[in-house]
Every structure is written in structure tokens, then in C-alpha cells.
Amino acid sequence: MTKGDQPKQSVLNRRGPVWTVLGVLLVLGIIAATGYRTIYAPASNGNSETTPDSEKAPRHLIVISIDTLRADHLGCYGHANAQTPAIDKLAGEGALFEKHYTCYPLTLPSHLTQLTGVSTLGHRVRDNLYHRLPEQFATLPEELSKQGFTTGAFVSAFTMRSGSGIERGFSIYDDEGIREAQQGKLTIPERKAEVTLSRAAEWLKKNKDAQRVFCFVHLFDPHTPYSPPADLAAKFAGKPNAGYEAEIAYTDRELGRFFEQLRALNMFDNAVIAITADHGEGLGEHDELSHGYFCYDATTHVPLIIRAPGLKACRPVAITRNYDLAPTLLDLLAIRSESIARQTHGRSLKAALDKPGEDLGLIAYIESHYAYLNANWAKIRALRTASSLTVFSGDLVEHYVEPRQLQSQHDTHPGDVQRARAEIERLLGSLMPPRRGKGTPGQGGGMGTPYPGEAATEQDFEPETINDTRELPAPASKAKLLLRYQEAELAYDEQLYQGCAEKLRKLIADEPKFLMAHKLLAGVNQLLVETEWKSLGIERARELALEAARSLAAGADLSEAARNFENARRMKRNAALLCLWLNEGALMKRLQAGGEADAALAWLDWLLRYRTAKSEGREIVAKEAEQWLAQAKLEEPIKQQALLDLKRMQSGEELKLAPWE
Ligand SMILES: [Zn+2]
């Protein structure tokens, strides 16, 4: 189908007749295989897009996404212990979607879905650090900008920093203070709600006379580590999940103030105001403390509350998905965007608002590659219907019909399991991206990550099948180990680095093939060496650096065995950097021995040869290195760095690299 053949229907007009004709193809809200093909059509230049004149349409759009907020921890969703009056009040005045799901329980992937209407299955950003939104997808702020909106985003954590494509279309993308990974720290830089909201309010004040405004706010406080204000900490002390609950109460209190500011600016009653979350939090359910590892309701069931002029208070019961958000917001604003309509996997939820009591037959597709990308475990693919959750991972099948999802009943519901499998297979099979293999490397390469030596690339666009990681262990089969790992992570968050390293050493002794434990141990050691080498003494610092390098080498071997070559390459490069600190030639050789040849690794070896050559031999090494570099295929920005290194070698400079040098 060419662009000219696209039906010129609004998203709203699409439901009804199309639904009846396409029937089952719409169960996931995905407009069939033809829709998938056109997902990858180049984004429209916008000239063909028009704004329907609607005097009654709300003027502004305010979207607030609260990181890590479980739906069932808000008062309006029935949580008795909650102290969330501001959000509850908003929910009472608008629509509260009872069964709203994220398609991917991780920050950046989920937010990109919110802002594009495309599930992670389509845009394939499945990691916070290494993936980037492909250019061909239009974003909500881009589309609203074209329609005359003044757009601004105010975000609160490093995982939402600009550079991944999340910033696209915003005239201001405020990530000040959280853009850079903190030197010598692995924790995610974050900003408190009061800071982010006051910056948003200031910007809104400046733009209060603008024709129409879209303000996107991301708050991070309910995410670990917890540091609620003293009064709320005291109020929740001794209660279950005290830190989490207190941070939610804090966020609500700040939002209450923000809403007052909106009212004072006359930007409240004439705006669509949406509150949602990117994912929930395990809080120990299914042995998951945080999120990303599994796809149970604990981390996928999130709030969606929308208040808008003319919208009656209601509580729609249909299953809704975060890829429905963009089409729904456009619909409520009476804005037509063909780009979003063409690419979205979701649909406008106007039908759910019109008939809140009806189950619209929608189903949420949910997935996580987090454990695959980080631990070489199997990918998770799940289907959430109104009555069940079916999960496929490795050779493990789970099927739950009770809300807590504790007893799998896959044996007693084989028909439901088979239907879910067929639906997921159909979905995966209908995705035919134009590009095969790796996309072009993302500009994220220079973004920096908490793990030194690692860099972002655009995600893999290989075709996927439900069995593609079948030989790998299901994350659920590793739940007990995962719990111990997350305890080490918590120790880390609390800056108990020595304790964290001890937990990880024990974990690795019990499970030498645990990739994440190797990786975190390397990170902790490296951090300790960089920040505390003076107090540790050079000898201990060298021991820790060597342990880190060995852990990374072990991690690279594990990744190669699992055919996860991207992971392997990152870890080898990082290990090679540590070998340079230590002048550790033997391990450097070992890193180069297995797997595919990596020019970056070879270059680091030239640096090592230079460092370990006797002074008269350095000139020869520099000459040979120059010849090698002239023909080497090195990607940017490594090539530029290598040329700088070479200059230093040619001038006979000492290459000081280790913290103690
Ligand atoms: Zn998040």
C-alpha cells in the first residue's frame, strides 16, 4: 500500500466498521499485516495533515508519567494504605482505566511506546542504555508541534536523558543534571519531583499565552533508592514497602501543588491531563524486587487516569495498553496525525470512554528482553487478556487465571495456552521490517553509560520467533538466584559497595554462569578502584581491577556461548581497558583469541604493547601501530580516539591510564 492509498480516516472513525471487517486481526488493536508493512514507511512530511476544526477540543495536553508506580498502590485503585489525595481527586473527576498495561516493564522502552503508539515489538527499543528509536517512527510531540503546539518535556532520571530519540519533537527537553552518568557511580542520576515540577511550571508560565501547549513530565521518586521527606518517612515507618509508599505519597503531594499552579495559569480545566506510569515494581512478588525481569501484573499493570473537559467521570474496565495512549490523546485533542495512525499498534480508547462497562475484546501483548540482554536468559513473551495471563519463555509455559498469578494452570487450560501461542506467533510473524541485521549505529555511542567502556548502538532488527531463545533458561526458573542478585543491587543502591561485592562473589561461587553477577562485580570493583584506590592501596586496587577484568572476560565467554555477540564485545572491550591499567598481556591475548575479531580490541592491544615496550622499543611500536591503524576498520568515535592515542605514542609520551598513574 502506498501512502496515497491510505484511507483518510481519523483514528476515531476507524473503529466500528473496520473492527467488524477485520475482526480477529484487531484483537490486539493492531491493524493487520498491511498495517505492519506501513509501519516502516518513511514518516510523513506533515503537509498532508490537517487539524479538524473543533472549537470544543481541549486546548492543552499535560502528560505525567510516574516511574515505577504500580496501579494497585494508589488510593483510587483501591490501596487502603495509600496517601494519594491529589491523584485520587483527579481520577474522581475523569476516567480511570482499571486494566491498563505496559507492553514492556522498563523505563525507556515503555516511554517510547507511550509517545509513538508503537509497541516494543515494533520500535524494538528494549534497553535503557544501548537502544535508540529508529528515525522512521513519528512521535507525539513531533506531530503536535506540526499542529501548532508548543512542546516541552521535563524528565527526572538518566534513563530518560536525551540522545535515545525520546527527546524528538520537544522544543525544550529538560534533562539538566541527569544527562551524565556520575563519575565513579553506578546509580542512576535522578532529580526529585519538586525540582522537575517547578521547572515544568516555570516553563508553562512562560508559555501560558501560547496557542496550545504539550507538557510531558516524568517523575522518578518511587524508583529505588528511596529518600522520602522526613515527615512521610516517619508516617510510613514500619509499614510494608514503607520507602516505596512514602515516595508515592511525596510525588502526590508535589503533584497537588503542580495542579494548583496549573489552575492559577488557567491551564487546568482546558487541558487533557493524563497520569500514567512506565511500569510497576515487583516488591518481592515472584521473587522480583524491582522490574524488567518478569511480565507479571506486579510490574505491568499501571495506572492510566485521564481528565479532560467534557469527559465524564468513569472507570473503563477494558484491557488497555500503553500503545493506546498516543492515539487516544490525539483523539481527545481532535488532532489527526496520519503518521501516528499508520504506525500505531494501539487504538483510540474513545470507545472505552463511551462504554466504560464493556470489555472491548482488547488484549495486551507484553514482552521483556531485559534478562536476555543482561543475563543471556530467554526472552519473555506474554499475552494479558481480561481473565488470564499466558507467558512463554524458554521452554517454560505459564498460564494464570487468578489475580496474584501464583499457580500456573497451563496443564488444565491447554486450549487457552494454544490460542495465546498462536496469537503471539502471528504477531511476531507479521512484523517484516525493511532492514535486516543491525541498523546503523545510533548516535547514542557518545552518550556514556554507567558501565564504562560500553556504548549504545541501534537495536537488532532480526526477524523474531516465539522459539528463538528456546534453548536458554527462562528467567522464572532462575528466580531464587535473581532475588539474591537484586539484594546485591540494593546493597549497591545503599552504597554498601564492599557488602555488595561480597554477595556477588558468593553468588558467582554458587552459579559461575550468572552473567549479571559478573557484570555488576566488575562494575563495583571498578568503581571502588576509581574512587578509593588511595585508601585501598595500589596493591589491593590492582587485585580488584584484575578481578573485574576476569569477571568481564568470563561474562564475554558466557555471552558468546549464548550467541549474544553484542554483549560479548562490550564486555571484552571493557576488560581490555582494565588490562591496560594493569599491563596484563596474557588476559589481553585471551580476550582476542575467541569470537569474532574486533578492531577496537586490537587497537587496545597496540596501546598495551606501547605501554609495556622498553623506551627504545616504543618508536617501533608506534610505527607499526600507525601502519595497522591506516588499514583498520574502526567505528567512530573510537577511530578519533585512536588517532589521538597514536599522536601521543608518536611523540613518545607516557600513556598514563590507570587511576593510580
Ligand atoms: Zn522506569
Instruction: Examine the coordinates and then state which fold CATH places here, giving the name of the CATH topology of the largest domain.
Output: Alkaline Phosphatase, subunit A
CATH homology superfamily of the largest domain: Alkaline Phosphatase, subunit A
Classify the secondary structure makeup into a structural class: alpha/beta
Bound molecules: zinc ion
Q: What is the general shape?
A: globular
How many domain modules? Answer: 3
- At CATH's second level, what is the architecture of the largest domain? 3-Layer(aba) Sandwich
* Biggest sheet descriptor: 7 strands, mixed
Alpha-carbon distance between the two ends: 62 Å
Detail the poorly predicted runs.
Answer: 1-53, 434-458
Strand order of the largest sheet: 2-8-7-1-6-4-5
Q: What percentage of amino acids are in beta strands?
A: 5-15%
Cα-atom Rg, whole angstroms? 26 Å
Helix share bin: 40-55%
| Overall pLDDT score | 86
Can you count the beta strands?
13
Q: Helical stretch count?
A: 25
What is the CATH first-level class name of the largest domain? Alpha Beta
Any descriptors?
661 residues; alpha/beta; Alkaline Phosphatase, subunit A; Serine Threonine Protein Phosphatase 5, Tetratricopeptide repeat; 13 strands; disordered N terminus; binds zinc ion
Explain briefly what this protein structure is.
The chain has 661 residues and is an alpha/beta fold. It has helices spanning 11-14, 17-22, 32-39, 85-93, 107-116, 120-123, 140-146, 193-206, 230-236, 242-264, 297-300, 325-332, 338-343, 350-354, 370-375, 414-430, 479-493, 497-510, 515-536, 538-561, 565-582, 585-593, 599-612, 618-631, 638-650; strands spanning 60-66, 95-96, 99-101, 149-154, 172-174, 212-219, 271-276, 304-307, 319-321, 364-368, 380-384, 389-393, 396-400. The protein is built from 25 helices and 13 strands.
